[in-house]
Design brief:
This protein has one helix at 3-8; strands at 17-24, 30-36, 42-45, 51-61, 68-75, 81-87, 89-95. The chain is mainly beta and 97 residues long. The strands form two sheets. A four-stranded antiparallel beta sheet has the order 3-4-5-6, with no helix packed on it. The protein has a three-stranded antiparallel beta sheet with strand order 2-1-7, with no helix packed on it. It is flat, with a radius of gyration of 18 Å.
């Protein structure tokens, strides 16, 4: 590896996407959902202005029925799921990468 390629080599960036799958209680459809870490979660701050956690809420609608699945996550500052609540369905798989 030459000097220039080491200088100008891009560092691997952490993905800004987070995928999870929910299953509808009514029809059983499994729906894979993408969460954009930079724009969708709302940060919560402490008195000193530091992010303590993120709140993420999303309504998911599948293609097989009109059952609305409501998802709420509390995420740590490093975007790990601290707690989750799903109504109208259930969380199958958080594909955290």
């Amino acid at each position: 590896m030459g000097l220039f390629s080491r200088i100008f080599q891009r560092k691997p960036q952490e993905s800004r996407d987070f995928y999870y799958t929910v299953k509808c209680n009514r029809c059983g459809e499994e729906i894979k959902v993408r969460l954009d870490k930079l724009s969708e979660p709302s940060p919560e701050y402490d008195e000193k202005g530091r992010v303590t956690h993120y709140i993420y809420r999303k309504d998911v609608l599948g293609q097989k029925c009109f059952n609305l699945i409501r998802v709420e996550f509390i995420l740590s500052p490093s975007f790990e799921i601290v707690s989750s609540e799903v109504t109208g369905g259930r969380l199958i798989e958080p594909d955290v990468k």
